[in-house]
Amino acid sequence: MVDPSEPAIARRIAGGEAQAESEFFERFGEQIKLMVWARLKRRMAPEEREDLVSEVNQAVLLSLRRGGYDASTGAPLAAYIAGIAAHVIGQYFRRQKKESFVESGARLDSHPDSENILSDLLDVEHDRMLRKCLRRLPSKYKEVLLLRIYEQHSIEEISQSLGVERRRVSERIHYAFQLLAKECRKENYFQY
Amino acid sequence: MKCEIKNRSQLIAAYLTGELSEIEMSEFEQHYFQCEECFRELKIGREAVNLIEREGPTVLAASVPWWEKARQFWSEIFSRRQWQTRPQWAFAIAAFVLLIVIGLPLGYWKYFHQTPSPESYAENFQPSARLDNLIEQTYQSPVLLLQVSPPNDTNFVDEIVFRWELAEDQKNTGPIELRILNNREEEMYKFKAEHQTFYFDEKLAPGLYYWALLTENEMAYLGRFYIRRAE
Prior knowledge:
The complex is a heterodimer of chains A (about 190) and B (about 230). In chain A, about 70% of the residues lie in helices and about 0% in strands. With about 190 residues, chain A is mainly α. Chain A has two domains: about 5-100, Orthogonal Bundle (Rna Polymerase Sigma Factor, Chain: A); about 115-190, Arc Repressor Mutant, subunit A (Orthogonal Bundle), CATH 1.10.10.10. In chain A, helix 2 (about 20-40) crosses helix 4. The longest helix of chain A has 23 residues, at about 20-40. Chain B is α+β, with helices and mostly antiparallel strands and about 230 residues long. Chain B has three domains: about 10-60, no CATH class; about 65-115; about 125-225, Macroglobulin (MG2) domain (Immunoglobulin-like), CATH 2.60.40. Chain B contains nine helices and eight strands. In chain B, strand 7 (about 205-215) and strand 8 (about 220-225) form a beta hairpin. In chain B, helix 1 packs parallel to helix 3. The longest helix of chain B has 27 residues, at about 85-115. Chain B is rod-shaped, with a radius of gyration of 41 Å. Chains A and B meet through helix 2, helix 4, helix 5, helix 6 and helix 8 of A and helix 1, helix 2, helix 3 and helix 4 of B.
């Protein structure tokens, strides 16, 4: 289902409205970052990741400026952005494989992180809350998170080392994230 | 808009830990670009993954009470390699700490509160024959001083106020020196007195004491007093 406000933003960007570009990144900037992080988190340094986020932002914006999004197809704008982002990330991997990385010239600095004191304070507060919530998790969930994320063991390896079924390991990991989100909601994580 | 995905938490965990196929990943990405609920949980999960990757078991450790932290601190100090290779340093430091911890309170108590044995207590009250003779001589000659206080053999517990009045022709002799001696003729204190009154509030052990007023050239007065134990 297409959000009625999305075609309007896309149209305004195609019409050259700078304000619409800001609104666009306010709406989707964080999602793009998360997507790049999820697809690349262990394969590149954070500063390189920022570069790739800028590259994705640039690609999406250029496409929208050219009027590349057509709402009449019924595809939501989110799907369109995710498609472009996936394509840019794929290109990045292909470039890496060929070991012929070419500087892509001036990148758009379209949605820089807000580097102000308030944002720093919020980050500190979020970090404190998250640590508190992580410490509260029951030990069997902490154990699987450590093995999977820190030790980088596969589900199969964890299953063998703990002597539990594969399915149980996956369930524990899912439940650990679910519990963590629940604890964070209790702490009003998103009110700050 | 409420999220309608049934296995949401499963999908989120799988996405964060890289368990989804490319197609599943793309589908979920299209979803969370629009779904605020999923996106919020994903953000929490991403921060958690970053923390665990960076800090490992530390970030998941339950909060440690202060006594456990202290125990860990000391066990870390003593498990250091230099203590194992040079244990004499560890013993020297331990002995020093023990000395400070026990020695200081003990020293304080011994200095201010120790009860002397009956013999030594009595000795502190034995008069000095030589000083007593001098008292006789100076006391009988009111050439320099008109009045002196406290009178001889007054008992004190703490603060003493010494007063004297110089004879008219002695007022330009300059500052007077006040000395306090114990009964073994050892000098305990020495002060320059600018005025004709001196407040003495130092601690003295119980016993017999002598006090002397000296001008530049001679001893103007010698008297004696007792310090008694507070009841």
